[in-house]
Amino acid sequence: MQHEAMRLGAALALLISAGAACAQAIGLGMEDVPLRPSELKLLKRIEAVDPSFKYGDRVKRYFRTHPTTKNRIPLRVEVVAPKTNGLFFGEFMSFSMLIDEPAGIVTYEFDAGTAHRGRGTVVVTPKDVVKTEYRCGTSACSTRVERNGRLVSEGG
């Protein structure tokens, strides 16, 4: 039994290292870095119309490297949210946020338990910040749309 466990452990280690080597061979990468000034500016625009909007100050930037030019091709920018005592922002059991800064789009999901969970999309244009959020409580769900911090529509 012990030899079987050791063989399985060795096989798992080989698979993990082979996966990492494969990712390097096809040029996939990730870096954990601070927000770029342009990304921070985008998030600050949202925060200006919605003071309850929360985000972290770091991102995991996923990319692939072009095989010929060696340029980094962005794949995904994921905000790293601060977590204390097992909760994100002292409130959420789970929280994720993606930024597409060139497009001006931020998507997020949160879960504070059955009483408060949901997902949303924020689109930032030169004139407007439009936030659409679908959220659920203990007994109902609703969709809420805000433009520049003002309620445009809400319904169940």
In short:
The protein has 156 residues and is of the alpha+beta class. Helix content is 24%, strand content 46%.
Walk me through the structure.
The mean pLDDT is 86. With 156 residues, this protein is an alpha+beta fold. The chain contains two helices and eleven strands. Helices cover 24% and strands 46% of the residues. It has one domain (2-155). The N and C termini lie far apart (56 Å). A hairpin with a 2-residue loop joins strand 4 (83-84) and strand 5 (87-88). It has a six-stranded antiparallel β-sheet, covered by helices on one side. It has a three-stranded antiparallel β-sheet with strand order 1-2-3. A two-stranded antiparallel ribbon has the order 4-5.
Features:
156 residues; alpha+beta; six-stranded antiparallel β-sheet; three-stranded antiparallel β-sheet; 2 helices; globular
Q: What is the topology, as strand order, of the major beta sheet?
A: 6-7-8-9-10-11
| Percent range of helical residues | 10-25%
Domain count: the total is: 1
Order of helices and strands: HEHEEEEEEEEEE
Largest sheet: 6 strands, antiparallel
Task: State the helix count.
Answer: 2
Helix-strand layout with pairing:
Blueprint: H1 2-25, E1 28-34, H2 37-49, E2 58-65, E3 72-80, E4 83-84, E5 87-88, E6 94-100, E7 105-111, E8 117-124, E9 129-136, E10 141-147, E11 150-155
Antiparallel strand pairs: 1-2, 2-3, 4-5, 6-7, 7-8, 8-9, 9-10, 10-11
